[in-house]
């Protein structure tokens, strides 16, 4: 009898009781809008921003309606204008090129390596093509940020980091999102904290912070941003910065605050699950484990592996055999985008050059979520199932006459 996994890859943990209590308190008093405060009161949204700024060591923080909104706001706040090129990873998810398109700018894709990070040689070769890089730490894989920043600094490129998958992670001790000019995060249900929808933008740049706050829809109430710059910062920009509403509200902020406090402990739990999967799969013939450098502090909320240079038919066979045993793998090599998974050539509003290195990696890339509702034993079981099915298909592939 072969083992079957019966858990759900999309089931997150419940909201902590303290977050539920805080949310109920906000509903009881009714002041859900972030600028609707009683005398002397600091809104939940403003407190959340202060706490997130402290967590990542940023001067300024703005909480917004979604991670995608944070990305587009960051692009506007650093001055990206319609028709300008913006460099970005070819391997990312749809909200990233979508944010570039939202400001009327034009994505220019950079190749990905077998480590699933942006190809820094390709970035260096394309450094004269744009003034801004929207860098996606896709699936939590962080490139050599020291080298990336030296390439971008030398070329005068402003870096915006998409940290949708790296909230709580770090490179060489510096929190993800704190290498570039702006860091953007998501609080959507499938990320590291869960308010259904939501996002953060952090920066040390006073002018960028002031513009982002005005853009998010602060009207002339920007003084209520406890994690924003002083009032003088708005003087020169408050008449010329459009209001493109995308605020965080107090209800979601109340749900998020206790989750931020728990984040370090949650990251440790994710990593224990990640390492269990990694251990269970290492040494599987035909399967490449993704390298995690020592400088990278990971948050293992998802797991990827490669079946490099396998025939598409064989990869499809692995996916369907694992699915039959309850293990849901997402394949980035599929011709058609499925659910949340799509790739650069599915975004047909972008004219992209051929990306042969990315095509090769995505053709062999399998991905799964690792929600904290999985136990360590669940992860060991999932690894046994994948190992067995990859092994069976690999063997059939390499035996002559089969
Ligand atoms: C989820 C996600 C985003 C956007 O976040 P939303 O809050 O869903 O708008 C951006 N980039 C990546 C890589 C994501 O996975």
Describe the structure concisely:
The chain has 11 helices and 14 strands.
Largest sheet: 7 strands, mixed
Our count of domains comes out at 2
CATH architecture of the largest domain: 3-Layer(aba) Sandwich
Major β-sheet strand ordering: 1-9-8-5-4-2-3
Number of helices: 11
At the fold tier of CATH, the topology name of the largest domain is Aspartate Aminotransferase, domain 2
CATH superfamily of the largest domain: Type I PLP-dependent aspartate aminotransferase-like (Major domain)
The helix-strand sequence is HHEHEHEHEHEEEEEHHEEEHEHEH
What structural class is derived from the secondary structure elements? alpha/beta
User: How big is the Rg?
Assistant: 22 Å
Provide the list of bound ligands, each named once: pyridoxal-5'-phosphate
Mean pLDDT: 96
Q: Portion of residues in helices?
A: 25-40%
The overall strand count is 14
Question: What's the CATH class label of the largest domain?
Answer: Alpha Beta
Strand content: 5-15%
Basic shape: globular
Uncertain runs with pLDDT below 50, 5 residues or more?
none
In whole angstroms, how far apart are the ends?
24 Å
């Amino acid at each position: 009898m072969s083992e079957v996994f019966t858990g759900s890859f999309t089931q997150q943990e419940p909201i902590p009781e303290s977050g539920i209590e805080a949310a109920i308190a906000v509903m009881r008093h009714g002041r859900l809008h972030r600028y609707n405060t009683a005398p002397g009161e600091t809104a939940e949204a403003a407190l959340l921003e202060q706490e997130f700024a402290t967590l990542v060591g940023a001067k300024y923080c703005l909480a917004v309606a979604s991670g995608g909104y944070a990305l587009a706001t960051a692009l506007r706040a650093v001055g990206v204008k319609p028709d300008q090129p913006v460099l970005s990873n070819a391997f990312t998810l749809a909200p990233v090129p979508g944010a570039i398109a939202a400001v009327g700018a034009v994505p220019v894709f950079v190749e990905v390596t077998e480590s699933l990070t942006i190809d820094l040689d390709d970035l260096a070769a394309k450094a004269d093509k744009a003034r801004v890089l929207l860098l996606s730490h896709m699936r939590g894989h962080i490139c050599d940020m020291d080298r990336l920043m030296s390439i971008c600094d030398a070329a005068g490129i402003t870096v915006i980091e998409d940290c949708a998958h790296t909230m709580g992670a770090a490179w060489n001790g510096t929190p993800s999102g704190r290498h570039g000019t702006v860091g953007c995060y998501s609080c959507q249900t499938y990320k590291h904290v869960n308010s259904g929808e939501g996002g953060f933008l952090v920066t040390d740049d006073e002018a960028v912070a002031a513009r982002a706050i005005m853009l998010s829809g602060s009207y002339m109430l920007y003084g209520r941003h406890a994690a924003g710059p002083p009032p003088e910062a708005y003087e020169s920009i408050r008449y010329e910065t459009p209001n493109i509403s995308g605020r965080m509200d107090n209800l979601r902020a109340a749900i998020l605050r206790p989750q931020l406090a728990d984040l370090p402990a949650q990251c440790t739990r994710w990593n224990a699950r990640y390492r269990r999967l990694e251990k269970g799969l290492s040494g599987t013939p035909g399967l490449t484990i993704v390298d995690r450098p020592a400088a990278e502090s990971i948050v293992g909320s998802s797991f990827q592996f490669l079946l490099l240079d396998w025939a598409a038919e064989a990869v499809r066979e692995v996916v369907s055999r694992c699915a039959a045993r309850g293990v849901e793998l997402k394949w980035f090599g599929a011709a058609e985008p499925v659910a949340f998974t799509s790739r650069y050539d599915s975004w047909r509003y972008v004219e992209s050059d051929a990306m042969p290195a990315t095509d090769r990696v995505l053709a062999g890339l399998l991905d799964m979520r690792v929600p904290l509702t999985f136990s360590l034993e669940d992860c060991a079981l999932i690894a046994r199932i994948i190992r067995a099915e990859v092994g069976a298909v690999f063997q059939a592939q390499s035996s002559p006459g089969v």
